[in-house]
Specification:
The complex is a heterodimer of chains A (363) and B (575). Chain A is of the alpha+beta class and 363 residues long. Chain A is built from ten helices and 18 strands. Chain A has two domains: 179 residues, P-loop containing nucleotide triphosphate hydrolases (Rossmann fold); 100 residues, Nucleic acid-binding proteins (OB fold (Dihydrolipoamide Acetyltransferase, E2P), Beta Barrel). In chain A, the strands form four sheets. Chain A has a six-stranded mixed beta sheet, with helices on both faces. Chain B contains 23 helices and six strands. Classes of the chains: A alpha+beta (363), B mainly alpha (575). Chain B: Its main location: membrane.
């Protein structure tokens, strides 16, 4: 089950709110389970999305994050638990009265309506139609960077444009909570990165409370304030972005926040002892547990204090990843510059970046 | 190292391939493939030309010798009444089928409940039954001494509409239901999250998405009802007639060939127009919609209206058939098998042969008709399933589609009479041939075979064929290894359906079957056209046997009662 983030200072960790009563503001997911037959797709999840913030729900495919999102929207019945908005239980409130916006992977625009017809759909449900809706539609098109697109048919839009229209459509009725289901996954990488930044800007500008499902850590870090890492229907860890990043509770979470390798602490600290001398004792990881490493925790440097043997060289466009044999540790990954002269089988000198190493709590 | 032919074949991705032999070879290969397809289409087209267009053309040409007379016929008030009734009753029937079919489609394709497969199968039952059987069932129910005799609906428009609804609701349920089940649920979810209530979502998102399927189902049912013969002849009585029954009356009773020919032309124009609309709509429904289809949900309180409508639909479709079967087991003294024993005897003065003998004729004709329909329909479907890049090739295929479908809508009576007037001298003197009836039945069944196979062939992921091709399979090997295995089950289903249709064919057969060798539907119609309790009783038993036979064939081959069968493309009723 999820364990607390042992972060210094703030008490992050799974937002367990049953005890704190029902007056917590924002979106509260309280011990929610969703079952499909005998399978629990979402299994006792607790989550808190404070008002005006964006929480990324990060996890591998099939971990239940999209199902949780649909449950918040009211599209999946809960097997148990409750979902509250500003203290009000949403159980029994039908989807269309919840005030939750929804954004899908590929936009899902209504094909038989124009861009304005799509954006105006939610406004019409609030009684704002025709001329009265036009200023708001224009304002939203400006916001998402598509001024003048109102009368276009949706078939003429590119993937990125369609997704911007979908965002405008979801924001038009000013939803209390915006739910985003991998909204950038269908776009190519460059567009995805640009749109992720734009998404962040738009959400911040509108002060929207949002829950953002993604399997891509980069997207999560670009768009969100807070992070919840999910696996097999459960939340492994949640909290402020930087807290989760600095203090992952286990190797799984560490892998999602940029520490893809886990090593035995004692062997690694012994092998890298020369590099720790300049680090104050208080900042050194404790011996006897396990450590999670960023790829850049060890970097190739001819003047570095650590000696190792290079096992393999994996070149990339702007940096190279080395697999190195560190005595007493085994193979680990290290970063090198794109033009490195290190060859497989040859010696390599390494430097340690202490902030690329985190200690995992003991199980 | 040797390169395989596939590796050498230039592809579109390598436009800069050196000019010379490879390109020429590719062009030659394409020519061979195109030639093969043209040949594949040519044989069925030739048969259609001889057996359909020549007789129908002859009949029409003979009748239209005098254009002025044709206009006179169109000016007759009787004609106007008949034309209006044809279109009006077909539109009303199709509208009723849609009204009834939509809630049922929701229930049996979007909800999950015990007995769902059985409900689907039951609703499909009348669709595979001969129209004569369904007509007799409604007549039995509504006759003065029938269960609903007090409603005084015998010989009324309502009786005709009810029988059409019984026969065709399954078309709407299936066409719309399959679309509905595959519908992307997310636009609806998006609308809900934007504040639309479930009913608002249905009106603004679901219905527009289903519109092509609804319209396609409507046109199909309209077509079936506009050319309906057996139902109108038996239930419409003397008061109501469609173009189809009127053509029959003008030729068979009044021998007014010009009038029949004019009516045929009007009907062909009507059908061509409807088919054109249907083809347009079909193009829009056959694209794959599957993105994130919704899981069927359990029954909820708001499904109650749909449940009630489904019960009504079941009552209309299955009720009369049960009444028919029960009445066939009743005699003056209560329960009896006497009516069935009478099937083997010459119990009535209108019969030249016992029903059992007629059954033999029916079965023999249906077997031949099925074989011919498959021989014509499979090559046509294979060609029609192609989606060529070229504009002209696409147009040719569109035209071929229309040509192949035309027999579906042209009056079976016209076909039957055309056979009589056109195929009566050498080199094609089929008048006394035993092939006359099966060939006419095959013409009726062929478009249905094509319609059942086409969606399956078109649904084959083209990348499967490309993968096979890249692994070195030639066009024939691809067809043998990819298309045919996927086609096996629908092919069996189409064969069974063609058999059932041939067995029940009434319009053309009633012209062509000689009195001493009638098929069962023809004999049933003759029996009930004469007064006498024994005639009716024998007809009831004969209709029950015929109906059960059709059902058994389709159920055995197609797995009518197999829940999965109604989901896949090409299942009975899926054209």
């Amino acid at each position: 089950m999820a364990s607390d983030t042992s972060g210094p200072g703030t008490a992050t960790g799974p937002d367990r709110l049953r005890s704190t009563g029902s007056s917590v503001s924002g979106l509260v997911v309280d011990a929610v389970s969703v079952r499909f037959g005998d399978v629990a797709a979402v299994d006792g999840v607790d989550l808190h999305v404070p008002p005006g913030t964006v929480t990324a729900l990060l996890g591998p495919s099939g971990c239940g994050k999209s199902t949780l999102l649909r449950a918040v929207a009211g599209l999946e019945p809960l097997a148990s638990g409750s979902i509250r908005w500003n203290g009000q239980d949403l159980a029994g409130i039908p989807v269309h009265r919840r005030g939750t916006g929804l954004l899908f992977q590929d936009g899902v625009l209504f094909p038989h309506r124009t861009v304005a017809g799509n954006i105006g759909y939610g406004l019409a449900r609030q009684g704002v139609r025709g001329r009265a809706a036009a200023p708001r539609i224009a304002e939203l098109l400006d916001l998402v960077g598509l001024p003048g697109f109102a009368d276009r048919t949706v078939q003429t839009l590119s993937g990125g444009q369609a997704q911007r229209v979908a965002l405008a459509r979801a924001l038009a009725p000013r939803p209390a909570v915006l739910l985003l289901d991998e909204p950038l996954a269908a776009l190519d990488r460059e567009l995805r990165e640009r749109l992720a930044g734009d998404l962040r800007t738009v959400l911040a500008a509108t002060g929207t409370t949002a829950l953002f499902v993604t399997h891509d850590p980069h997207e999560a870090f670009t768009v969100a304030d807070r992070l919840a890492v999910m696996d097999a229907g459960r939340i492994r860890q949640s909290g402020e972005l930087q807290d989760v990043r600095r203090h992952p509770v286990d190797g799984f979470v560490a892998g999602f926040v940029g520490y893809p390798q886990v090593v035995d602490a004692d062997g690694f600290l012994t092998a890298t002892a020369p590099a720790w001398r300049s680090v104050p004792a208080a900042d050194r990881p404790a011996a006897g547990g396990r450590l999670a490493l960023q790829i850049g925790a060890l970097t190739e440097d001819p003047a570095g204090p650590l000696a190792a043997r290079c096992l393999a060289v994996r070149p990339g466009p702007d940096s190279t990843v080395l697999s190195v044999e560190l005595p007493g540790v085994g193979p680990v990954l290290a970063a090198a510059s794109a033009g490195t002269a290190v060859r497989p089988g040859g010696p390599v000198r390494l430097r340690l970046r202490p902030d690329g190493v985190v200690a995992l709590p003991r199980d | 190292m040797t390169l395989t032919r596939a590796q050498l074949r230039p592809s579109d991705a390598v436009p800069a391939a050196p000019a010379g032999p490879p390109v020429t070879r590719a062009r030659a290969g394409r020519a061979v493939r195109t030639g093969g397809l043209v040949l594949l289409a040519a044989v069925p087209l030739l048969v259609l030309a001889v057996l359909f267009f020549y007789p129908v053309g002859t009949m029409i040409g003979r009748g239209l010798g005098d254009a002025g007379a044709g206009l006179d016929i169109l000016a007759r008030p009787r004609f106007r009444r008949i034309a209006l009734f044809t279109v009006g009753q077909a539109a009303a029937s199709a509208a009723l089928c849609v009204l009834l079919g939509l809630p049922v489609a929701h229930l049996v394709y979007r909800c999950r409940f015990p007995g769902r497969a059985a409900v689907r199968a039951l609703l499909t039952v009348p669709f595979v039954l001969p129209t004569v059987v369904v007509a007799l069932a409604f007549r039995t129910l509504l006759a003065q001494d029938g269960l609903l005799g007090s409603w005084r609906l015998d010989g009324s428009v309502a009786a005709v509409l009810a029988a059409h609804v019984c026969l065709n609701t399954a078309v709407v349920v299936r066409t719309v239901g399959v679309s509905w089940a595959r519908l992307d649920r997310r636009p609806g979810d998006a609308a809900r999250s934007l504040g639309a209530s479930p009913s608002r979502v249905f009106l603004t998102v679901t219905l527009p998405a289903l519109a092509p399927a609804v319209a396609a189902a409507f046109t199909l049912v309209f077509l079936f009802c506009a050319t309906s013969f057996g139902i109108v002849l038996i239930l419409g009585g003397a008061r109501y007639g469609t173009l189809e029954t009127e053509i029959y009356r003008q030729t068979e009773d009044l021998l007014d060939l010009p009038a029949a020919a004019v009516l045929s032309v009007v009907q062909i124009l009507l059908v061509a127009a409807v088919l054109g609309v249907a083809a347009l709509l079909r193009r829009r429904t056959e694209r794959t919609l599957t993105a994130a289809p919704a899981r069927p949900t359990g029954l909820r309180g708001r499904d109650l209206p749909a449940v009630l409508v489904t019960l009504v639909a079941l009552a209309v479709t299955v009720g009369p058939l049960v009444v028919l079967a029960v009445r066939s087991l009743r005699g003056p003294g209560g329960w009896t098998l006497a009516n069935y024993r009478a099937l083997g005897t010459l119990g009535s003065d209108v019969q030249l042969v016992p029903v059992t003998t007629a059954l033999g004729y029916s079965l023999r004709a249906a077997v031949v008709a099925t074989a011919v329909a498959l021989l014509l329909g499979v090559p046509l479907a294979v060609v029609l399933a192609r989606r060529p890049r070229g504009r002209w090739a696409r147009r040719w295929i569109g035209l071929l589609d229309g040509v192949a479908m035309l027999p579906l809508g042209v009056s079976a009576v016209t076909v039957g009479f055309g056979f009589l007037v056109a195929l009566d001298r050498p080199p094609l003197d089929l008048r006394s041939s035993a092939l006359l009836v099966p060939l006419a039945q095959a013409l009726v069944a062929t478009p249905l075979v094509v319609r059942m196979l086409l969606p399956v062939l078109r649904a084959v992921d083209d990348r499967l064929r490309q993968a096979a091709g890249l692994l070195g399979a030639g066009p024939l090997a691809v067809w043998w290894g990819v298309d045919l295995p996927l086609l096996a089950r629908p092919l069996a289903g189409a064969a069974a359906f063609a058999f059932a249709v041939s067995l029940g064919e009434f319009g053309a057969t009633s012209f062509l079957a000689r009195p001493q060798t009638p098929t069962v539907p023809v004999l049933i119609a003759r029996l009930i056209s004469r007064p006498g309790a024994q005639n009716t009783a024998t007809a009831l038993a004969a209709a029950t046997v015929l109906g059960l036979l059709c059902l058994a064939v389709v159920a055995a081959v197609d797995g009518l009662l197999d829940a999965r069968s109604t989901d896949r493309p090409g299942a009975v009723g899926g054209f």
